[in-house]
Design a protein that fits this description.
seven-stranded parallel sheet; RNA methyltransferase activity; methyltransferase; alpha/beta; transferase; SpoU_MeTrfase; RNA binding; elongated; three-stranded mixed sheet
Length: 217
Amino acid sequence: MHELFVTSRASEQHADLVDVARAAGVPVSPITDRAADGLSETVTPQGIVAVCALLDRPLDEAVTPAARLVVVLVDVADPGNAGTVIRVADAAGADAVVLAGDTVDPHNGKCVRAAAGSLFHLPIARVRDVPAALSACSAAGLRTFAAHGYADAELDRVDLAAPTAWVFGNEAHGLPADVLDRTDLAVRIPLYGRAESLNLATAAAVCVYTSAMAARR
């Protein structure tokens, strides 16, 4: 944290946070409610805003040979979806999340809020080069599974006990053919009802948790 801005109301409500910041040598600046409105992206700001360092790490630091479960997002556009998947990955005990291609910035305000603190719990890497992201996973000893609604292999019939990297694509278009070709296996979630599909965050939760539970068994 580089600097903290607080309204008088927030300094009373979050006195412990302000004290911790001051003890760490972080400058704390008082601001008005109007200034807080201007600094915040939310409709009802909490009156406390911090300027922080970026959280993402280099790819080789995030994906290591010790990893057993990694989530890769390719061209994911919605920050709420990206943040929710990061939260799911954290809850499932994943070792890292890789945001590849044109995936939204994890520091986007909506993404940060959707992640609900999980951005601080596991390594996040950003890389424009999708093949490089997949190669890094393979080099770390991970099998790369692509979530694909038209795949032949069904999730409940795939061995997920081995170290795995799950690859998820764009909300509207899924994964492009060249990315599917670079993964070890395309996998689909079976749909037993009449819904045509699952949204990205739900599909990610099903796949990632299935892997996590298989590994722990």
